[in-house]
Structures are given as structure tokens and as C-alpha cells.
Write a structure and sequence with these properties.
The protein is mainly α. It contains two helices and no strands. It is rod-shaped and about 65 Å long. The termini are far apart.
């Protein structure tokens, strides 16, 4: 309970909720995962477009 009192009494803005504490490290890791996944999806989309063009050109 002491931790909760110290956090709520600080003058920093609340992040997400008062009940949940997320570390900066965790936020950074999640951001890196998200960026990586976004890149994979983009790569997959480009590969799909190339594949689609090659299939269409054969018919």
C-alpha cells in the first residue's frame, strides 16, 4: 500500500490506470515488437502483391 500512496502522491501524469504500473522497459519492448510485426505485415503485403502479379501474368 505504501507504494500506491507514493505513486499517487507524485506529480507525474497517470499512465493508463491507477491500479496498473507499466515500466518504461516494458513499453519499449512492446513498441519494438509492434514495429517488428508491422514490418513483417508490410513485407508480406508486398510479397503478396508480387505473387499476385506473377499469377495474373501467367493467365
Amino acid at each position: 500500500m505504501e507504494i500506491k500512496k507514493n505513486i499517487s502522491s507524485s506529480k507525474t501524469p497517470q499512465f493508463f490506470s491507477k491500479e496498473m504500473i507499466i515500466t518504461k522497459k516494458s513499453l519499449n519492448e512492446n513498441q519494438l515488437k509492434f514495429t517488428y510485426q508491422k514490418q513483417l505485415i508490410s513485407d508480406l503485403d508486398n510479397k503478396h502483391k508480387e505473387w499476385s502479379k506473377s499469377i495474373n501474368s501467367k493467365f
